[in-house]
User: What shape does this take?
Amino acid sequence: MVKAVVFDVGETLIDETRIWSRWADRLGVSGFVLMGALGGMAALDRPHVEAFELVRPGFDLRAEEAAWERDDPGGLRNHFDADDLYPDVRAALAELRAAGYQVIIAGNQPRRAYEALVAMDLPADSIHTSEGWGVEKPQPEFFAKVAAVAGREPAEILYVGDRLDNDVLPAARAGMRTALLRRGPWGYLHAARPEAAGADVIADDLHALLAAARRIT
Assistant: This one.
């Protein structure tokens, strides 16, 4: 029986469209060009930074992020705020908590993302980031941390994310139940793959999770 529902962040709770658009401006290409390159990397199972390298040969992510922070110290840059939440997030998380489920947010995010998520006052019991934990998905240690902060057996946890490689498959290997969310480029692509059949749930929105959690035994 599921007792806790744990959420990834990017393209699960946060719509990253504005982030990618700002990156396109920073790189000096159109949004269409960068989105196309990102889609190609998603289809090829290659990291998104290779899309940046494709449109700007010699690209150095850390150097560019540091330069961007110097240029625009008060801006959002490659981060997000409450305006980037998907419309179903608050209501869906509140539904789950009202039904008695523990709600946790835990994803591959920098420390600044933790502060942004806390400031949103979401209906969640706790919020965690990979930088705060010092371990990232898909490493098994990340999912061990998820179980530890939930205080649950892995089989009592439903992990929700938009990717097979980072979310569904490693969470399942850790003994958790899984939900694959069909949104964002990775979500749509991964939901069409044969491996998606291994997920306990394939959902089009977060409102589907309450009924799904109740069905899983």
User: Anything to note?
Assistant: The beta strands are 4-7, 102-107, 126-129, 157-161, 177-181, 201-203. Residues 14 and 208 are 17 Å apart (CA to CA). The mean pLDDT is 96.
